Amino acid sequence: MNRHRVAAAALALAGFGGLLGVPAMASAGSPPPTLTDIRAAHHKGFDRLVFEFRGGLPTERSAKYVSTVFADPSGKVVPVSGGARLLVRFFAAVVRPNLTERSFALPGLLQAVKAGSFESVLSYGVGVAKKEPVHLSTLTNPARVVIDIPTPYRTKPLHVFFVDSHKVGQGGTPVKAVTRPVIPVSPAVGVMQRLFAGPTLAEAATGLRFISSDATGFKQLTIVHRVARVHLTGGCNSHGRTVTIADEIIPALKQFGSVHWVKIYDQAGHTERPNGHSDSIPACLEP
């Protein structure tokens, strides 16, 4: 009689809350799987993003495109750089400390950013260069959730500039160029997206840093009469530093033959020299 009641209760849970209730009963007392690594690589025709877990696979996992990634549980916008954004969620899973973000120098994949870990629901925002159908699968030994992102487009190698922490304060140009594959349809936009995705783990290990100056993104990038104009979003503050995001943006945009001068605007649309043939930064980027 008791077995019948347990079975009925399990069916009721499945009907009310989907499949999440049943695995939780089956694994009662067991610690949830722990996300231990995020990595990615390019294969012929697609990028593969891998989430590796210790302690088995999450009971459920999903990946879908969203217009904006929101933090769980705060509801705040999570900046994720790219032409499109995936929300990846793992149910009944946790993450090891400090596994918050990964950046990639791949044709379709820019970055993965932790969006939440609340009540055993773990979520990441994934920035991709272009919206393409994705395929989610799992592998074992070790337990992995795999997301394949098609890359049926041509890219060209362009430069992105990050601050070299070893050169700051030594005089000269404190930035270093790295190469990124960028879709050539809107190359200046692609370069800016790669900038905001930040350096890879390997690049960060050599001392490269993305100095955001509190900016979380950009908008209204135009190039007219050899003048590139770009508006920062989210914030703008030099924090008294002589090296700012302007040192990264200006050389990145000047690599294009159509750009001789770069004017950077704050989130309110202000820059110090909006007219004329000269570079310009907003007052918030002054030391």
Main traits of this protein?
287 residues; alpha+beta; Immunoglobulin-like; 3 domains; 5-stranded mixed sheet; 5-stranded antiparallel sheet; globular; disordered N terminus
Describe the structure.
The chain is built from five helices and 16 strands. With 287 residues, it is α+β, with helices and mostly antiparallel strands. The protein has three domains: 1-30; 31-150, Immunoglobulin-like, CATH 2.60.40; 156-285, no CATH class. The chain has a five-stranded mixed beta sheet with strand order 5-1-2-10-9, with no helix packed on it. Strands 3-4-8-7-6 form a five-stranded antiparallel beta sheet, with helices on one face. The protein has a three-stranded antiparallel beta sheet with strand order 12-11-13. A hairpin with a 2-residue loop joins strand 1 and strand 2. Helix 3 runs antiparallel to helix 5 (246-254). The termini are far apart.
- List how many beta strands DSSP finds: 16
User: Which structural class is indicated by helix and strand composition?
Assistant: alpha+beta
Strand order of the largest sheet: 5-1-2-10-9
CA gyration radius, whole angstroms = 22 Å
How far is the first residue's CA from the last residue's CA?
Answer: 76 Å
Mean pLDDT: 91
List the secondary-structure elements in sequence, H or E.
HHEEEEEEEEEEEEHHEEEHE
Helix content: 10-25%
Q: Given the C-alpha coordinates, what overall shape results? A: globular
Main sheet: strands, sense, barrel: 5 strands, mixed
Low-confidence stretches: 1-27
Number of helices: 5
Number of domains: 3
Task: Please state roughly what percent of the residues sit in beta strands, choosing from under 5%, 5-15%, 15-25%, 25-35%, 35-45% or over 45%.
Answer: 35-45%
State the assembly state of the protein chains. single chain
